[in-house]
Each structure stands twice: as structure tokens, then as C-alpha cells.
């Protein structure tokens, strides 16, 4: 019996250690340190605020003005918009600045269909449909559409390499809300669906471009059954533990369903989970019922349109919420 107990303890210890390790075996020490910190948060939660790429300080500063504290996480987007073919260089400069100020960085990628040219229209490209044939071509190496997709990824890689050069770890959450029906990469179930696109992206950035400063955040949307605005079960879009460091979900309209939280925890099997985007902040009662969220990030203007100043202050005063000045993370 003692031998069996010892074996189980060793097995449990090895499992926990494996969960602390990034999926990219060549990850930088900064990535390893940040992921270890996130894994060790226990019931604490990192605060976060998203900013539009053309307003990189507005809502981040708003939190400071409302609460006296800066969020621990600053988020932005590699969305090529506003008439610019590629404004990524400006974003990189802001990433470097925010990192020096002490923020943890999270970046996303609203990108248009590979069949389109940048700059990408929102409704016309990012939120447009893709045919089954085009999807098959997209995930099939050697096709014209796949080559156009490679060009998109390679352009993104230029900026990620610059961030890597500055030794900045990034919570990277591309192609988010993939279980929803509103983006061209969404609602593609099964091995030949979204899971394949995710693996191709991981391989291109990790194996080909040698980008080792990313923590890979698979970021879905809270499941819902609203007609023509559905978000389906997480498991049908998950690429597997070997390609994901953190599992996240987006929650809007105060849809903090306990069953969805439990479903994501189950799928994660010990990996960290997070609230990649929220509209209304979770209140203290929700955070106590759902204590395993590693961070939350409020989406830009929703900070003010969906929350009261007092509500934001209350959450930032909650003892389990970590602000920028309270980050205990050594690179």
C-alpha cells in the first residue's frame, strides 16, 4: 500500500510539473516563468484591459483613473484596419512600452480571409463566410489559398519576432471565439476544421519561424443557443493539449454559467483557464463560485458602457484580484 501511495504521489507531482511546462519545448525562460506564475495563482485572478490598436492607452488609463490601479494585463490586437495594410510596427512599440511599465501582454489577431487583401473590412472580410471548398484549400499545403494564408502568418511573424527580440512573453490568443458562427474561421468542427488551422498556425510560427516567446491561449466563446448567433461546445474545436498552454473563453451579457465553467475546467484537465474577454466584469460572488479563472480582460469600451464605476472599483478592491503593481513574477 505504501508503495502504491508513493507511486501516486510521484505521478501527481510529475503531472503538475508537466502542466507548468509550455507546449513549445523551446520556449524562452520568460515564457516558462510567466506560465509557472499563472499556474501558481491558485484562487487569485489577474486583472486585464483590452485596448484598440489605435487607442492603446485610453481604456487602460481609464481603469487607473477609476480605481487608482493599472490592470495587470494589457491587451491589444493585430487587426490590420483604418486604411493601413499593416500597422503592426506601431503596436510592437506599444507592447515594448507596456512591458517596461510592468504589464503582462496579451495579443490577439482579428484577420481577414486569406482570399482578401489587406486592409481587411470588418463585415466584408473578418466576419464574412468561407465556403467549404475554400476552407479545404486553405488547410491544404500547396494550394494558392494556403500560400496566401502563409503570407498572412509570415507578416504577423515579423512583428512577433521583434517582440521576441525584446524578450517579452506574450499570452497569444489568435482566431478566438472559434466555436461561434460570426468569424470566417468559426464553426468548423472536427479534425479537418478549426483544429487543423490551429495546428498549422502553431507549426508555422513555432517550427518554421522559431518564435518561442508565446504562451498559446486557445480562446473560445461561452456556449449559447441564440439562433444565428450560436456558440457550440468547446470540445468540438479543441486541437489537443500538445498545442495549447491555456484554455480561455469570452463571456458577454453576464453569461457566467457555472456549467460552462465546469465544462472548460474538465476539458483543460489541469491546464490554466481564463476569461479571455468579458463585457460585464464578474462580481465577487461569481469569482468565489468560479475560483480557477487565471485572468479576466474587459473588452475596450465595455469598461464604461457595460459596467458602473462603482462595480469596477469593487472588483479591483477584491483581495483576490491582482493589479499591475502586485504582480509577483520574476523573468
From TrEMBL:
Stored SUPFAM superfamilies: (Trans)glycosidases
Keyword annotations of the record: Glycosidase, Hydrolase, Signal
UniProt-annotated catalytic positions: 177, 277
PROSITE patterns: GH26 (PS51764)
Superkingdom of origin organism: Bacteria
Similarity comment: family membership: Belongs to the glycosyl hydrolase 26 family.
Name recorded for this polypeptide: GH26 domain-containing protein
Native organism: Aureibaculum flavum
